[in-house]
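Project outcomes to date are best conveyed with an example. Our students and postdoctoral researchers have been running inverse folding experiments weekly, and each run begins with a structure described purely in C-alpha cells. The record below, which covers 516 residues, was selected by the lab manager from last quarter's runs and is presented without edits.
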C-alpha cells in the first residue's frame, strides 16, 4: 500500500472512530507532491464547476486542506448531534442559541485585552477563552432570570440573546476604531471560517468531540433519566442539578469549538437539526443518540465537501443546508414518524374504522328487522329463511352515517375482498366470517356504552360517540384488557342501552349522522 492509499485509509478511520490524537502529524506530512504542471486545489474558489477529477479527489481526500476541514467538521457534527439529542429532549436547544450569541462580546473583549497587553489579539485560544467567559455569563443570566423572577425561560433567552449580541456588534465597531488593532477577521466568528481551519483547529475539535461523546456515554443512563423525568431522578437519589450543569457544560463546549467551523449564528443548527431529524427514525433513546451523531457527521462532511469543490459557497452555510436537507428527507421518509408512514397508518386506521362501522351497522339493521336485540339473526344471515330478510339495502346503510356514497362503496368493496360481505346488486349480506366479526364489534361497542353509562355518568343519548372514540383511539392491548374486565364472563351480545328503537338502531342512526 503506497503512501497516498495509507493516508486515505488513515483519514477515514480517524473520522469514524473520533480518535484524533497523535495520528494527525502523519497525515499532515502527507502533502501532495510537487508536479511539473500546477494543479488546482479542491479549495480553489476560482473553479466554477468541478470536474470529475475534483469529485474523485474529494472522495479520496487527496487535498490536505480539504482533509483537515472535512474531518474536523465531521467530528464537530457528530459531537453536536449526540449532545443535541439530550439538549432537545431536555428542552435546552434554544439555550445553545443564546449561548452562541453571548460569545460575541467575549471575543471582542478578549481582542481588546490582548492588544492592550501587547499580545496577538487574534490568537484563537485567547478569543475562545473570552467567548467561553461571556457565554457562561449569558447562561448564568438566563438561570437567574428564570429562577429569581416571574419571567418565562423563552423571555430570558430572547433578552440575553439580543442584548449580548448587540453588545458584541458594538464592541466590533469600537475595535475598528482602535489604533493598535483592527477587527478584520473577527467578524468571521459570526458566520464561521471553515475553509481556513488549520490542523490545530481540527485537533481542538477532535479533543472536544471525544470529551463530549465520552461524557455522554459514561452518563448516558443518568442523562436519559434527567431528560424524561427529572422529578423521578431526584427521588431516586440522582443529582439532577449537577447533571443539568453537566449537560449545559457539554452544550457550552460544542458551541465554543463550533465557532471556528460554522460561526456563532449557525452552530445552533448542528445541535438541533440532527437530533430533530433522528426523532423521525426511532423511538429509542440510544438509537436517537447514534442516529443524531451519524446525521451530524454526514451533514458536516457533505457540506464541507460541497463547499470545497464549488466556487464561492461558504462552508458553514452549506453544512447547515445539508443538515436541513437530511431533516427534510427524514421528515418525509422516516420509518417511525415520517409523513409517508404516518399517512399510511392514518389510511389504514380510517379503513379499519370504516369497516367496523359498516359491520356494526349491518348487524344492527339485521337485528332490528329480526326483533331479537340480544342475538344475531338466525343462522347468522336469514331470519325467516329468505335471502331478502338476511340482506341490507345499500340506501339503508348510506342513511346510518354521514359517509358519502363513494366512501361507503369503497368500504363495502374492501370488506368483500376480505371475505366479510357478499354484494348482489344493491343488497349486501354478511358471510359467516362477517357475522362473527360483526357480533364481536357490536358486542365490544355496547359493552363500552354500558360501562360509560354505569361508571362514567354519560347520558345514553351521547354515549354512542364517546364509545366510538374509545374504541378507535386506545391501543388494541388496552382494549383487550378492559374488555376482559367488562365481560364478567358474559358471552352474549348485550342489548343496546339507547332508549329508542329496537337494538338502539334509531338512536344510533340519529347520533351517527353527526359524526364521521
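After processing, the design step wrote out the following sequence:
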Amino acid at each position: 500500500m503506497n503512501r497516498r492509499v495509507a493516508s486515505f485509509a488513515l483519514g477515514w478511520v480517524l473520522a469514524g472512530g473520533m480518535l484524533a490524537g497523535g495520528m494527525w502529524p502523519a497525515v499532515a506530512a502527507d502533502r501532495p507532491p510537487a508536479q511539473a504542471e500546477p494543479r488546482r486545489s479542491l479549495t480553489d474558489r476560482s473553479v466554477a464547476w468541478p470536474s470529475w477529477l475534483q469529485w474523485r479527489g474529494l472522495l479520496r481526500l487527496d487535498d490536505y486542506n480539504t482533509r483537515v476541514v472535512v474531518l474536523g467538521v465531521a467530528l464537530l457534527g457528530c459531537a453536536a448531534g449526540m449532545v443535541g439529542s439530550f439538549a432537545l429532549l431536555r428542552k435546552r436547544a434554544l439555550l445553545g442559541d443564546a449561548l452562541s450569541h453571548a460569545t460575541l462580546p467575549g471575543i471582542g473583549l478578549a481582542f481588546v485585552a490582548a492588544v492592550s497587553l501587547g499580545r496577538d489579539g487574534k490568537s484563537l485560544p485567547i478569543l475562545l477563552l473570552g467567548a467561553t467567559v461571556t457565554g457562561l455569563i449569558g447562561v448564568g443570566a438566563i438561570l437567574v432570570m428564570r429562577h429569581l423572577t416571574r419571567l418565562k425561560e423563552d423571555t430570558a433567552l430572547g433578552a440575553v440573546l439580543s442584548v449580548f449580541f448587540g453588545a458584541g456588534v458594538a464592541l466590533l465597531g469600537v475595535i475598528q476604531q482602535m489604533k493598535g488593532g483592527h477587527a478584520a477577521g473577527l467578524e468571521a466568528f459570526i458566520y464561521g471560517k471553515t475553509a481556513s481551519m488549520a490542523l490545530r483547529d481540527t485537533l481542538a475539535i477532535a479533543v472536544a468531540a471525544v470529551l463530549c461523546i465520552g461524557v455522554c456515554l459514561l452518563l448516558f443512563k443518568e442523562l436519559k433519566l434527567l431528560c424524561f423525568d427529572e422529578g423521578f431522578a431526584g427521588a431516586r437519589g440522582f443529582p439532577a442539578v449537577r447533571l443539568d450543569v453537566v449537560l449545559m457544560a457539554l452544550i457550552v463546549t460544542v458551541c465554543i469549538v463550533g465557532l471556528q467551523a460554522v460561526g456563532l449564528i449557525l452552530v445552533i443548527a448542528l445541535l438541533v437539526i440532527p437530533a430533530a431529524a433522528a426523532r423521525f427514525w426511532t423511538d429509542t433513546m440510544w438509537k436517537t443518540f447514534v442516529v443524531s451523531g451519524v446525521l451530524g457527521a454526514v451533514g458536516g462532511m457533505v457540506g464541507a465537501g460541497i463547499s470545497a469543490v464549488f466556487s464561492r459557497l461558504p462552508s458553514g452555510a452549506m453544512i447547515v443546508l445539508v443538515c436541513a436537507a437530511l431533516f427534510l428527507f427524514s421528515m418525509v421518509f422516516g420509518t417511525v414518524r415520517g409523513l409517508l408512514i404516518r399517512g399510511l397508518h392514518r389510511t389504514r386506521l380510517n379503513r379499519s374504522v370504516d369497516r367496523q362501522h359498516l359491520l356494526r351497522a349491518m348487524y344492527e339493521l339485521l337485528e332490528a328487522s329480526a326483533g331479537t336485540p340480544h342475538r344475531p339473526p338466525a343462522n347468522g344471515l336469514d331470519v325467516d329463511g329468505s335471502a331478502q330478510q338476511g340482506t341490507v339495502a345499500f340506501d339503508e346503510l348510506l342513511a346510518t352515517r354521514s359517509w358519502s356514497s363513494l366512501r361507503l362503496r369503497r368500504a363495502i368493496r374492501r370488506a368483500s375482498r376480505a371475505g366479510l360481505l357478499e354484494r348482489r346488486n344493491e343488497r349486501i349480506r354478511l358471510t359467516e366470517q362477517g357475522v362473527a366479526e360483526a357480533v364481536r364489534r357490536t358486542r365490544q361497542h355496547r359493552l363500552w356504552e354500558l360501562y360509560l353509562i354505569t361508571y362514567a355518568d354519560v347520558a345514553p343519548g351521547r354515549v354512542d360517540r364517546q364509545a366510538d372514540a374509545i374504541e378507535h383511539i386506545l391501543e388494541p392491548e388496552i382494549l383487550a384488557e378492559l374488555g376482559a374486565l367488562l365481560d364478567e364472563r358474559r358471552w352474549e351480545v348485550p342489548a343496546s342501552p339507547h332508549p329508542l328503537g329496537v337494538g338502539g338502531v334509531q338512536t344510533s342512526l340519529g347520533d351517527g349522522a353527526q359524526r364521521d
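Residues 1-47, 373-388, 500-516 have pLDDT under 50 and may be disordered. Residues 51 and 388 are 77 Å apart (CA to CA). The training component of this project remains on track.
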